[in-house]
Amino acid sequence: MHAQHKLINFIALGSRSATPLLYTYLAEHPGICLASEETKFFSDSKEFARGLEWYESHFSRYKEEIICGELAYDYLNSAEAAGLIATIYPSARLLAVIENPLVCVRVEYIEARRARKISPAVSLSAFLKDNPEVMLRARYGRQLLHYFGLYSPNDFLVLLASDVHNNTLASLAQAYEHVGLDKSFVPASLKHLIPEEEEDTKKRSGIIKRNYRLLKKILKRFFSYVKYVVRPPKATIELVSVVARKVPLSPKLEQFLKDYYRSDVEKLSALLHRNLSAEWGFTDDVKK
């Protein structure tokens, strides 16, 4: 395969426990063309064998002015995928959202219960013991090293799930700009978060028109909010993260998980120049 520099502008890497909400908002942007389905092209040898032409056929709306990209869920934890992406699309922008690993493992636990893959009677500890790959998937420091060794920090934007939740508009604008989209676009489901601009008193119309416009704005915001509550963005796993934080960790299991992830979180902190060890609570009980 020869390096392709034009069609694919960006690839969002995963993971399922952190990215769905951001993916939903990315998909709403009118200037974006996404793969018609999750291809697994770079992570599954059988899919990769189908060839580059097959992969790029998923981007059917391609035009010069459209930004093309894939929202993938399993490229982040694959060193092989990192090498293939860098070889074929060396100029692509990369995007990832990461979550506190102590939350990630609980998200997967909740999802496994909801999908009836495990019995409700199975504890989190037993689930992790029987499914060690769940813990491996949350080792973001090790996973990101593969990509940072192939791409410059300017080409790879890493967001925290907490920032996407707490500063949605700012995080979304950052993601849009990074992949080459108009960062001023706001999805319809987030319009209610935009503060009203003060009206210029010199250009004010009559009181009836002003009241009509005010009422129209209030109703528009109200129905937008109702729609957001009744039919929220289709990102159920993101919403599960709120529930995941309520799943109790026994002192023994919490200590075990912190010991398991501590060095990886330190590695991640160094990569992102952000003290995630402190933010995620991995420094309050370091063994002497």
Distance between the termini: 52 Å
Do you know the CATH topology of the domain at 10-103 and 134-187 and 250-279? Rossmann fold
* SS element count, helices: 14
Residues in β-strands, percent: 5-15%
In the CATH hierarchy, what is the superfamily of the domain at 10-103 and 134-187 and 250-279? P-loop containing nucleotide triphosphate hydrolases
Give the strand order, joined by hyphens, for the main sheet: 2-3-1-4-5
Please tell me how large the radius of gyration is.
Answer: 22 Å
Supply the helix-strand structural class: alpha/beta
Can you give keywords for this protein?
single chain, 288 residues, alpha/beta, Rossmann fold, five-stranded parallel β-sheet, 49% helix, globular, disordered N terminus
